[in-house]
Amino acid sequence: MDQHNPSEFSSKAYLGMELLRFTTAGSVDDGKSTLIGRLLYDSKSIFEDQLEAVKRASVQKGSEHINLALLTDGLRAEREQGITIDVAYRYFATPRRKFIIADTPGHIQYTRNMVTGASTANAAIILIDARNGVIEQTYRHAYIASLLQIPHIIVCVNKMDLVDWKEEVYESIKAEFKAFAAKLAIHDVRFVPISALLGDNVVEPSAHMPWYGGGTLRYILEAIHIGSDYNHIDPRFPVQYVIRPESQAYHDFRGYAGRVAGGVFRKGDKVMVLPSGFSTRIQGIYAMEEELEEAFPPQSVVITLEDDLDISRGDMIVREDHVPEISQDIDIMLCWMNPRPMEVNNKYVIMHTTRQLKCLVKEIKFKVDVNTLDHIEDGTSMKMNDIALVSLRTTKPLFFDPYRTNRITGSVILVDEATNETVGAGMIV
Hints:
- The chain contains eight helices and 25 strands.
- By secondary structure, it is an alpha+beta fold.
- The protein has three domains: 6-229, P-loop containing nucleotide triphosphate hydrolases (Rossmann fold), CATH 3.40.50.300; 236-319, Beta Barrel (Elongation Factor Tu (Ef-tu), domain 3); 325-428, Beta Barrel (Elongation Factor Tu (Ef-tu), domain 3), CATH 2.40.30.10.
């Protein structure tokens, strides 16, 4: 393999590989950018010209080592200020998996960015500086990860080189994080001591920490089982687009395109269409011009039905024995993302799967102090980065599942009707 040449992974084998999305979170200067740079560099997933540019920039800055953090600094303005201010998405692959990384800022005021980056993640890497241990930002990131029901949490205790590779420092941080995680809905937590700067336990095992018996970070990312992260029990198919070819050869064809949001759909299954409530059977399932016997999350497919029903974007195909909740009144855990406050009785556009409706804010039941998990009774307004339990009423019923059951059919976003800005993201409870 040509070293530092990612083009090797552009084969058909690459296209068929399993994709894992993960997000990184940590406090300022915990080493997120360096860690991601190290993963890219040691996984040979950067181009030679990128590497040369980083080497030159490192020399100009007087760095003793190659400054791998420069690989992930997206904007020149960020780099000059020494901070990362948005969600940066990076892509790389190993022989076993493809990866999408969401690199989110560590600052308290950018909570909304972590929510954005983590909303579709299979795993979250939470960085902790070994010198500082578990701090308030660690609690904040762990809470948001649990709120978003991220299935797998990997706690990287970074900068072990600066605490003389001491096992007791690592074990103390591990015990403290475990105690906090026990209060949250976090079920799979893994720990790994690393030095992102030197590469210990990132891609290659560390010779400095023989007391650590676990795998490297890359090994953990490659080995995590993500097949069960999706809901394969409750069949959900939000219709995104109705396909009616103009060609005379296909004038009788009527297909419904979308992404399977839950369960398994099979040819011949009896299904129900919401909101009409009409029942029919699946005639065929297609993907990339190939007919399939079944479809499951997160596949994008076209479904044809035996009966010609009036179906449009925003409708949902389900099974009669697994109907979702249907209501105009929903409670959501909402993260507010806009500088303009949200107030009771404000109206917004709510987007849920492929359905778009208008809604009214009925009540702010309580806010959450994400550092202490305390509920704050302050039910008048929400400011940017606040997280609160909010009651909404929609103009028409939504077809939904609780977020803890299905992250796709249990999530919504709020949009300002006047500006078309996304102002909030919520998880249905």
